[in-house]
Queue: 3 jobs
Job 1
Amino acid sequence: MRLLAVSSIILGVAVAAGHALASGGPQGIWRMSNGKVTVRVVPCGGSYCGMVVALRKPRDGHGHWRLDKENPNPALRSRPVIGLTILSNMRTVGTGAWSGTIYNPDDGKTYSSSMRLFGPSTMTVSGCVAGVLCKSMKFIRVD
């Protein structure tokens, strides 16, 4: 009887978590756990994209806005980092999981990427080189 009760509780929690993932999705405002960047994730056609909406340090040491100065296209190097779309074409690959690309303004490169929800308020975003060397970042929902 006790085993049945424990099993029912575990099943209930798992179902509730699954519903939270399915209904919440990645849409919203997310802050990297270290506070460095805040991103708004929104639907973009049949996928999701994410735009930088805040930086912990929005200005450089000279008081100038941080720019996309490492962009390989010289014409884009004067764009402010705030407002850049850094997550693109994030398409569903499973329950609570998406795959697409991430642009890193720190080095001006675009990487394959994945997003995965862990409950309604925690998400990891990974960027990978050649699908092997990956770096994951933890984001916390702030809206």
Job 2
Amino acid sequence: MSRVHLSRQLTLEAVERVADGAGGYNETWQTLGLVWAEVTARSGRERDGGDVTLSSTRYRIILRAAPLGLSSRPKPGMRFREGSRVFTVLAVAEHDAAGRYLRCETAEEVVV
């Protein structure tokens, strides 16, 4: 296994549902913390998004592991943010046998 280079700082965010007072809810994103990560592009494609064309790129994001149950451990449905870029977490697994790092498969969609 090659050496991991945690060279990019990302913000980990989780969705939070807030009652809107009319029986429904609004979704807001809550910052859980900052992480250092290695971000690697994997594959990409273009797809029809109705009125716009979307470019969807898959990324592998590797970061230091956090124990199960901690809010700082990413899980599907969360996202990483880097400035205006958003990486939606699709899957999370241990990256190495010792469990020191996590591997997150993510997607970034951009309007073309």
Job 3
Amino acid sequence: MSDDATTTPAVHGAWTPDGETPPSTPKVSEEAVITMLKTVFDPEIPVDIYELGLIYAVEIEDDGRIKVEMTLTTPSCPSAQELPSQVEESVRMIPGVTDVEVEVVWDPPWDQGRMSEDARLALNMY
């Protein structure tokens, strides 16, 4: 018999009188969502949307549903159609996510004060 420490044990669901239930889906962490949000960049600004302060809220439900409230730098942003779609696509890639809703909100309006220090440095806005 091998003592291979890299072998992952089989994942099983719970046994019930009606049979075995499927294994539970992994819980989605806020860190995982933020990591994926940081992969989405405004095409006109070389900083990710999370550091720009465009993400206002992330709600994670126990069943894997994710809701993201975000804004854009301006209502006339040329990326208004593509950025929310990119957010949805990136968050859907997280294991355990069952559904994603992205809502674009305008209140409060975005301003440069929402940017992280890293974003300010990257854009020479200190």
